Amino acid sequence: MCGLALQWIAIALAVVALAIPLIRLLALAVMDGIPLPGALGVVTLIAVLPGALVAVQSIVLVFAAKGRNWARILLGVLAVLAAIGAVSSVTADLPLHPGSVLSIIGVVLLFLPAANAWYRSRRTPSVPRTVPAPQR
Asked: Membrane-spanning residues where (predicted)?
């Protein structure tokens, strides 16, 4: 599924986009004379929320790849949040993150007719309940 592949690429870009500024921040803090443990604490604090979001998106993506429709819907919600972030960054004259764009495109692909058919085929058929016949 092309949409899932784009989601994985978006996650990889998010990790890189998170790591590079944090490494740069750590280097600048150490060069400014901040002790390494203190600088590591600040960098860790800044990385916790984005790192947790990447972890949650990765877990949800694994379930979406297994055919879980709820995970596909949750990825859609996360893509809407990414779209809001993309629009707000553009209006604030910040560069648009390519991972956000890939995530949005990937989720759109997850809701196309071919993907809908794939998710329907992965659904486990419900077992009809049989009502026992009344005993006489």
From this structure: 43-63, 70-88, 100-119
* pTM (predicted TM-score): 0.69
Backbone angles phi, psi at 89, to 5 degrees: -70, -35
- Domain of residue 24, residue span: 2-120
SS3 string, 18-75, reads HHHHHHHHHHHHHHCCCCHHHHHHHHHHHHHHHHHHHHHHHHHHHHHHCCCHHHHHHH
Sign of CA dihedral 31, 52, 60, 97: negative
Mean pLDDT by 10 residues, the chain (136 residues): 81 81 78 76 75 87 91 89 77 74 86 90 70 72
Q: Is residue 125 part of a domain?
A: no
Please give the tally of structural domains in the chain.
1
Distance spanning both ends of the chain, measured CA to CA: 55
In single-letter form, the type of residue at position 133 comes to: A
CA distance 122 to 79: 23
